[in-house]
Design brief:
With 299 residues, the protein is mostly beta strands. The protein has no helices and 26 strands. A hairpin with a 5-residue loop joins β9 and β10.
């Protein structure tokens, strides 16, 4: 089976399984940066696939139940757009999809248990944060507005819980939950993690959600919080060795969480750490071969 990745400016992102590389650079966008590549872990080879219709930055890519990939929006100096497109895994080509109702970047896109996609918040022109949300139906190729979040959110996280609800964390003092059944948002009874953004959120084997690091009060944070959906409570656990943001985090088969790279007080980071849920502690491990930020990791 092949594994799709696409270029977000100069960032390679693996969308489905397998091991892969991540690459970044500071070049301005060119036509080459709309290309897609397929990585085959069996042969350890890359092949060029179809190109997207435009380059994108701070967009989302969501694997649909069909095996196709939905890419939405764009932000930053590339300009904000509502346009979407779909990668057809059977043909290796991209085709247009219905546009969102609002141009946005820095948003989230979460595949719901229904097979639909929930897009939340983000930023639009003049860097205004959004509270608006919408749902994409891949069968009908149609976007439908849903209830706004209780507050505007951008560069936040969205995590699908085992209940089918979606947890939002951000630089607001409280977190919130979306219920696809009622199509309504609610604020968590207990206060969410300390206000910060550019975090990551990883679901543990216990179904608890680990929210890691980020930017808090204009400073890099190493704070780690755990949300327990069964009790609707937050607990602050051991801090990271190195505060960071724009890192990645991934659940390993062992149940531990691997955090890699990002940006910290010492600029871009190559450092990596492991979180052990049994001890609630972080441990520094070997560095990556290069510093990386806004990259991806895939198990």
């Amino acid at each position: 089976m092949n594994y799709l990745l696409f270029y977000s400016l100069s960032i390679c992102i693996v969308l489905n399984g397998g091991g892969a590389r991540q690459t970044t650079n500071d070049h301005k966008p060119t036509n080459d940066l709309v290309i897609s590549e397929l990585y085959d872990p069996l042969t350890n080879r890359w092949t060029v696939s179809g190109s997207m219709s435009r380059f994108r930055l701070f967009h989302t890519a969501t694997l649909l139940n069909s095996g196709n990939v939905l890419v939405c929006g764009s932000g930053g100096y590339t300009g904000y757009t509502a346009s979407c497109e779909i990668y057809d895994a059977s043909t290796g080509q991209w085709h247009g999809a219905a546009s969102m109702t609002i141009p946005r970047g820095f948003h989230t896109a979460t595949l719901l248990k229904s097979g639909q996609v929930l897009v939340t918040g983000g930023s639009t022109y003049n860097n205004g944060a959004l509270a608006s949300c919408e749902i994409y139906d891949p069968v009908a190729d149609k976007w439908t507005p849903t209830a706004n979040m209780t507050g505007a959110r951008s560069d936040h996280t969205a995590t699908l819980l085992s209940s089918g609800k979606v947890l939002i964390t951000s630089d607001a003092d409280s977190s919130q939950i979306y219920d696809p059944t009622t199509k309504q948002w609610s604020t968590l009874k207990s206060m969410g993690p300390k206000a910060r953004y550019s975090t990551t959120a990883t679901t543990l084997k216990s179904n608890k959600v680990l929210v890691i690091a980020g930017i808090e009060l204009a400073k890099y944070s190493g704070t780690t919080d755990i949300y327990d959906p069964t009790t609707d409570e937050w607990d602050t656990v051991g801090s990271m060795v190195t505060p960071r943001s724009r890192h990645t985090s991934i659940l390993l088969n062992s149940g531990k969480v691997l955090a890699t790279g990002g940006v910290g007080d010492a600029d871009f980071l190559a450092s990596c750490e492991l979180y052990d849920p049994s001890t609630n502690k972080w441990m520094a491990i070997d560095n990556m071969t290069e510093e990386r930020s806004s990259h991806t990791t895939t198990l």
